[in-house]
Write a structure and sequence with these properties.
There is one protein chain. The protein has 340 residues and is α+β, with helices and mostly antiparallel strands. It has five helices and 19 strands. The strands form four sheets. Strands 2, 4, 6, 7, 9, 10 and 12 form a seven-stranded mixed β-sheet that branches. Strands 5-8-3-1-11 form a five-stranded mixed β-sheet, with no helix packed on it.
Length: 340
């Protein structure tokens, strides 16, 4: 269902290009397949359309969690800009299950490396991998593999959502015992990231066409350095509406993903979305839903001056009417007093 959502989203954005081909290739590689057990290193997941144009993919990988540990998944240089299933290492409790899943797409599609491209632009994600220290891995070398599962799929950018014929290739690693200092390239890259995620838009989706008639927002951005860690959403006052919106009330950030169903279904709250990257840098975007006339009139900046003007006019009318009545009731001079 999520994979279908990716395709439908790209179709609605008008980014699917009519182009077909016979196959695509998903594969893993690394700068070296021999790594020190004490190091933390990258294993990129790449895609080669092989003459096709693609714009969405569902990737599933497996590995032996007693030998390898996937500490994180870097997405800073990913082709994907829309994530329906952000990269995650599946776990049972605190233990890795040895399975990785992610899913997303790219508006505009991807037709392969351009001339002069050193190969960096075909990355879907980079696995941050290290060896698992245990009594079972005490030999000088240990073999480990990361395998691409058969459920992996790629969608062609042909306007019809065609599932591409696919070839896959995992990677075999050799983990060696060394006595030198450990090297954690991922930690070094995260510490060097001082740039906030890119600016993005909040899109409100509402109306009878929405499932369960619920209003929700969508949002997405990228971070080209360490990658997006998570999003948080704040609705300024989701539990008080109308005339009570001027009453001070503490609001809280809530961790959430896109699409995000709003708590305030009456759309009286200002909405804020915060994108946080792996280094902790933040980008905050605000959105204020269109307001009805009643909501506008009951906002404090409108309500208080309006009430003040109404009261002032009322007082002026009241005193004018009293003045008129007092003149009408004033005694008139009689003819006798006039003659005198």
């Amino acid at each position: 269902m999520q994979f279908l959502y990716t395709f439908v989203t790209l179709l609605l954005l008008g980014t699917i290009m009519p182009h077909t081909a016979d196959a695509a290739r998903v594969f893993l590689d690394a700068s070296s397949t021999t790594m020190s057990r004490s190091d933390t290193f990258y294993v990129p997941v790449r895609i080669d359309p092989q003459g096709a144009c693609i714009n969405a993919a569902h990737i599933a990988l497996t590995y032996n969690p007693t030998v390898l540990s996937v500490q994180d998944i870097a997405t800073g240089d990913s082709l994907f800009t829309l994530w329906t299933v952000p990269p995650r290492v599946e776990r049972t409790g605190t233990r890795e299950t040895g399975r990785i899943v992610f899913e997303g797409g790219m508006p505009g599609g991807y037709c392969g490396r351009v001339e002069g491209d050193p190969g960096l632009t075909n990355i879907l994600a980079r696995l941050v991998v290290s060896a698992v220290p245990s009594a079972e891995n005490t030999s000088s070398t240990t073999q480990a593999s990361i395998v691409v599962l058969p459920e992996t799929q790629v969608i062609l950018a042909d306007g019809a959502g065609t599932i591409a014929p696919l070839t896959v290739q995992g990677i075999d690693l050799t983990l060696t015992q060394t006595t030198g200092a450990s090297n954690n390239i991922w930690l070094t890259d995260v510490k060097s990231d001082m740039i906030a995620p890119e600016l993005f838009d909040i899109i409100l989706v509402t109306g009878p066409s929405v499932g369960n008639n619920k209003s929700y927002i969508t949002f997405s951005t990228v971070d080209k350095q360490s990658g997006i860690d998570h999003y948080e959403v704040l609705e300024t006052d989701p539990d008080r509406f109308g005339i009570l919106t001027w009453v001070p009330r503490e609001a809280h950030w809530v961790r959430g993903d896109s699409p995000y169903v709003l708590r305030d279904q009456k759309l009286h709250s200002k909405i804020m979305v915060k994108a946080i990257d792996k280094a902790g840098n933040e980008r905050v975007v605000e959105y204020e839903p269109p307001m009805s006339a009643l909501t506008v009139l009951t906002r404090p900046l409108v309500l208080i001056p309006t009430m003040s003007i109404v009261i002032l006019i009322g007082l002026m009318v009241f005193w004018w009417m009293r003045f008129r009545r007092s003149r009408v009731k004033a005694p008139q001079p009689t003819q006798a007093s006039h003659d005198a």
